[in-house]
Amino acid sequence: MIDFLQNWIYLTGAMALVGIGLYIVLTNTNILRIIVGLNIVDSGTNLFIVTIAWHPKSVMPIYTATNNLVVDGHVVAADPLPQSLVLTAIVIGLGTTALALAIAVKIYQKYGTLDVRKIKEEDK
Amino acid sequence: MMNDTPEMVKKVFAIFVVGILIVGFFMAFTQMPKANAVNVNNTVSRFYVMKDVDQATEMLDKGTYFNKDMVPLRNDVPYTPITFGKSANLEDGAANVVTSIVVDYRGFDTLGEVTVLFLAASGVMLVLHGQKRKIPKKRTEPSEIMYVGTRIAFAVILLFGIYVFIHGHLTPGGGFPGGAIIASGILGLFLGKQGYSPNKSGLTIFESLSGMAYVVIGIIGLIGEKSFLANFLPTGTIGDLFSAGFIALIYIAIGMKVGSELSAVTNAMIIDTEDD
Prior knowledge:
The complex is a heterodimer of chains A (124) and B (276).
Chain A: H1 2-27, H2 31-51, E1 70-71, E2 74-75, H3 80-111, H4 116-123
Antiparallel strand pairs in A: 1-2
Helix pairs in contact in A: 1-2, 2-3
Chain B: H1 7-31, H2 45-50, H3 53-62, H4 97-105, H5 107-127, H6 144-166, H7 175-192, H8 200-224, H9 247-272
Helix pairs in contact in B: 4-5, 5-9, 6-7, 6-9, 7-9, 8-9
């Protein structure tokens, strides 16, 4: 079990983050908490994508004076492509969160509550 | 009504759903390569790291990289070794490989990303538009130390943000983190003085100009080189500040755009959520 955790700690962490976020989304009725849960799911998926491109002996994919990415024709760096995909995903997550929060402000101004059940009752 | 179901049952059901997801995750793990065995040598990313994507494309056209069984990529590919500070006129001169992918090889995708951020920011401003700031009943003015301190800190934070996005092709960072750093400095100004509001039209003009600069750089690439967002400047020696062609230019545009955009979003949210 300890060996498993040492090798898979980041994958397990990513899985745990997605699970926690999904649990928050499923059990809470407050819109702000749902947004927080979705953000945690977002972090979990980002961590997952970065982790599958990484291994414990890899170096960072940046050429510096002391950091050689290619040794004897073999690339020893972490895979840079998923990292750049995650860079995109982080920014888009930020934008969607900002928009969701703005809409939550408007919902509070109209209904006076952020509870999705009470909003549903008031709509009837 | 939904409220008939006891709270406990709902939580158990939620745990059940999450458990199913985790089991699915575990099943995906068995399909994946084992830990410590992720090998960039067998993936497409090795061409980005070795900076020979053009050569790889040529050889892919001839079919030399793929055999008939579609075993992805072979290891015995010739490459030119890259030395930091010596190798010059590479295909892409950025020392930071992630940056070279984000801005150079996938530059069009980054233009779309900037557009998404722009749409989100304009959506926030559209939704929260036209709200007047309420004057708080209990005014607690920030002290003089806060006022002066945030202004001094803003100068330093602005400088650091500019450093981050100018050195995007050499160090971790780039336009998006640099812009976020600048916006956090402007958030400090909000804390320092009650009723502070940045020049909105100035922010809009700044944002539009820098967004336009990105597209103009792309069109220059279209005219001067083969394709939209193609690198039209010399790539220089890897590791120099003036290297990597147009990556620094694009990151300056992105940094200014993201900084002004996030500042405008902060402005909209702070004004419109201030309670009495």
